[in-house]
Specification:
The complex is a heterodimer of chains A (448) and B (231). Chain A has 448 residues and is an alpha/beta fold. In chain A, 33% of the residues lie in helices and 14% in strands. Chain A is built from 15 helices and 16 strands. Chain A has helices at 24-36, 108-120, 134-139, 156-161, 188-194, 213-227, 243-252, 272-277, 282-295, 313-321, 331-337, 345-350, 375-378, 383-407, 426-432; strands at residues 41-44, 56-58, 79-81, 90-92, 96-98, 124-126, 142-147, 164-168, 179-181, 202-204, 234-239, 257-261, 267-271, 303-307, 326-329, 421-423. In chain A, helix 10 (313-321) packs across helix 14 and helix 11 (331-337) crosses helix 14. The longest helix of chain A is centred in the C-terminal third of the chain and has 25 residues, at 383-407. The N and C termini of chain A lie far apart (44 Å). Chain B has 231 residues and is mostly beta strands. Chain B has one domain (40-218): Pectate Lyase C-like, CATH 2.160.20.60. Chain B contains 2 helices and 11 strands. An 11-stranded mixed β-sheet of chain B has the order 1-2-3-4-5-6-7-8-9-11-10, covered by helices on one side. Chain B is elongated. The chains are: A alpha/beta (448), B mainly beta (231). The interface between A and B is large, with 34 and 43 residues.
Chain lengths: 448, 231
């Protein structure tokens, strides 16, 4: 028996056949559940394979399309977010932002590294549950301040200090779910920011405390605009479940920007069963979201930011081609600054995991010093080096995106369009609403 | 910012928008303000951050005095959802009744509701003080973290569900308590605190000894699978 790369799996002998239904991970989970009597909690996003951007291909220029010369002809990457109502929209140099991640889940140096890297590349970072830290504000030229159900750390001074406000309704890893930061990560500072005693489990509510439904949301957004004198763009973030309706309702509620997070999007901690079984893939979420915007006459007027499993410039290009104005990265940014690094392999093994697999982020023992509140561990992360690595990674994503956009004849990355895409699988063709490669067949729609 | 401590301004929402009102209140040139014809509009006097007093002559909609800092806001009527939500400091008084989520997540300051408050009063409270002259609805003080809620009337079902360190005082009946919320002994320390709070809220005629105290049993502070049925 071997894996998909042909590498024999450990423990295999002639005559043994592993069950596809009860594979080793499944057997391990059954035994763990029987032993502990509680669901598994972990961080990150969906690990199962779902239709994704790898199932799409871009169609380069041909007889009927002119390409753009690399290194000679411009291929613009800047984007403006929040042009609908805000007096001061965000002007970003690149269409890749850093997603919301909390101080609490992440260490102070990790937040600083994200701010440094994003600022170097002219893009934004985002706070998370737990509020804004002075270090984060200092190192992020453009900072989006999240308004979450818990309202931990929420205050009007930070609201005014922010460059944009993101009303978080859900996230792709756990749409419909709240959060839990276990006591071992509630340091004195985290506790103080959240108005809670140190060392106790901190629950984040799944619903906002003072509004319910889209009619109330519209009034809530109006209040936030009044408090900030209509200066700040208001984002609305939803986990991808019913994107057509959610995006339409966010627009109706007055959002300047909609952030749509697919099921591959990460979380600091939630139930494994939630991560793997609730929500839809990012690929499947974009077309209905864009459809809603187009039907409302709001495509490109209310900007769409897509997140959840963005890894490469190819992912960025394909998301933009499907109609997104920008993308957002979380897990990839953490990897870029050093999370799960192979150099720390022994230390990951010492805590019962392995480099590349570590996802017990809620336990706060991350040897990389990123997903922890332990001062000694956190001190391992050099925020300047982390920031440089993130900037390098973002720079690479931009170069890759431009390479693909130029090949498709686009002088601006947002000019990529569904017509530039085909799908490798029937499922991806149906979800992305682009033809199966080599055919004109879009499953579920009229042939084009 | 210089505020004329002698000046007073009157502004009617029949003639001005809420935006115009709030813009004026965010850069105030007078200490005392009177708002006429509020007509149930939303976000009236939201985001104030100055030592001014604002009196609103009538009913207001959602989020009146939202995120208030330092200002004193007096509503001569009823108010909609989320009065003084996330207030940081200052004082907000409602002569009439309040809708849901009064004082939600408020960090500081004093909210006084002379009438009744609907469901979820003081939800996720983070340090502010709330005094309700009448009764409060169900699920009030849900996940309240810190601060004080004093209720001169009754409390609805599931009071203080999943409460943290907030203190709740109720003079009348409590329909039921939520998960991990228990009745606690009213010690002298609490009598003094409550008496002083009632005095500041204009209810100094009430005897703190007539109130009962509720708070967290702290059994659910750290997740234990054996408590799963409690949530």
């Amino acid at each position: 028996m071997s894996d998909s790369n042909g590498t024999p799996r450990p423990g295999w002998r002639d005559g043994l056949r592993e069950s596809a239904t009860f594979d080793r991970a499944t057997l391990h989970e059954i035994r763990r559940a029987a032993r502990e009597g509680i669901y598994d909690i972990r961080g990150g996003g969906a690990k199962r394979r779902v239709p994704n951007f790898d199932d799409l291909l871009l169609l380069g220029a041909s007889v009927s399309r002119y390409p753009i010369e690399g290194y000679r002809e411009r291929c613009d990457t800047d984007v403006v977010l929040g042009t609908r109502f805000a007096k001061r929209p965000l002007k970003l140099d690149i269409p890749i932002t850093i997603a919301g991640m909390s101080f609490g889940a992440l260490s102070g140096p990790a937040k600083e590294a994200l701010g440094r890297g994003a600022t170097a590349m002219g893009t934004s970072t985002t706070t998370g549950d737990g509020g804004m830290t002075p270090e984060e504000r200092e190192h992020s030229k453009t900072l989006v301040y999240q308004l979450l159900p818990s309202r931990y750390g929420m205050n009007p001074d930070d609201l005014r200090r922010a460059d944009a406000i993101e009303v978080v309704i859900g996230q792709g890893a756990k749409p419909g779910g709240g959060g839990m930061l276990l006591g071992q990560k509630i340091s004195e500072r985290v506790a103080e920011m959240r108005d809670l005693p140190a060392g106790i489990d901190q629950r984040s509510a799944c619903r906002h405390p003072d509004w319910t439904g889209p009619d109330d949301l519209e009034i809530k957004i109006e209040e936030l605009r009044e408090i900030t004198d209509w200066e700040k763009p208001i984002f609305v973030k939803v986990g991808a479940t019913r994107p057509y309706y959610d995006v339409a309702l966010a627009v109706k509620s007055g959002a300047d920007v909609v952030v749509l997070d697919g099921m591959q999007g990460g979380t600091a901690a939630t139930q494994e069963v939630f991560i793997e079984h609730v929500g839809i893939p990012t690929l499947a979420a974009i077309p209905p979201a864009v459809q809603a915007l187009v039907e409302l006459g709001m495509h490109r007027k209310v900007q769409l930011v897509v997140s959840g499993g963005i890894r490469s410039g190819a992912d960025v290009a394909k998301a933009l081609a499907l109609g997104a104005d920008a993308v957002s990265i979380g897990v990839a940014a953490l990897v870029a600054i050093g999370d799960n690094a192979p150099e720390l392999g022994r230390e990951y093994e010492a805590i019962g995991s392995a480099a590349g697999f570590y996802d017990d982020w809620h336990e706060g023992r991350d040897p990389a010093g990123i997903l922890t509140q332990d001062d000694e561990l956190a001190a391992r992360l050099d925020p300047e080096l982390g920031g440089r690595r993130l900037a390098n990674y973002l720079r690479t994503l931009v170069q890759e995106t431009q390479t693909l956009a130029r090949a498709c004849g686009k002088s601006r990355v947002q000019n990529l369009e569904p017509e530039d895409l085909v799908a490798l699988t029937v499922e991806a063709a149906a979800m992305a609403r682009v033809p199966l490669a080599g055919t004109d067949w879009i499953p579920g729609t009229e042939a084009r | 910012m210089s505020v004329d401590l002698t000046a007073a301004r009157t502004l009617s929402l029949a003639d001005h928008t809420v935006r115009e009102l709030n813009a004026a209140l965010h850069a105030p040139d007078a200490e005392r303000w009177e708002v006429l014809d509020p007509g149930g509009r939303h976000a009236i006097a939201a985001g104030l951050d100055a030592e001014i007093s604002v009196e609103v002559a009538g009913h207001v909609g959602y989020y009146c005095a939202g995120m208030n800092q330092r200002a004193s806001v007096h509503i001569r009527g009823n108010c909609g959802v989320g009065i003084a939500e996330n207030m940081m400091s200052g004082k907000v008084v409602v002569d009439g009744d309040a809708s849901q989520a009064a004082g939600a997540t408020a960090h500081g300051g004093l909210l006084v509701i002379e009438g009744n408050a609907a469901a979820r009063c003081g939800i996720s409270l983070k340090g502010a003080e709330i005094v309700v002259g009448g009764s409060i609805g169900h699920m009030s003080a849900f996940m309240a973290q810190s601060g004080t809620i004093a209720v001169c009337g009754d409390a609805g079902e599931a009071l203080g569900d999943s409460i943290y360190e907030a203190r709740v005082y109720v003079r009348g009946e409590v329909a039921s308590l939520g998960a991990d919320c228990v009745a606690k002994e009213l010690l002298e320390e609490h009598r003094l605190q409550l008496g002083e709070l009632l005095e500041r809220a204009g209810h100094g005629d009430l005897d703190p000894g007539e109130f009962r105290r509720y708070g967290s049993a702290r059994r659910l502070y750290n997740f234990d699978v054996d408590d799963a049925g409690e949530y």
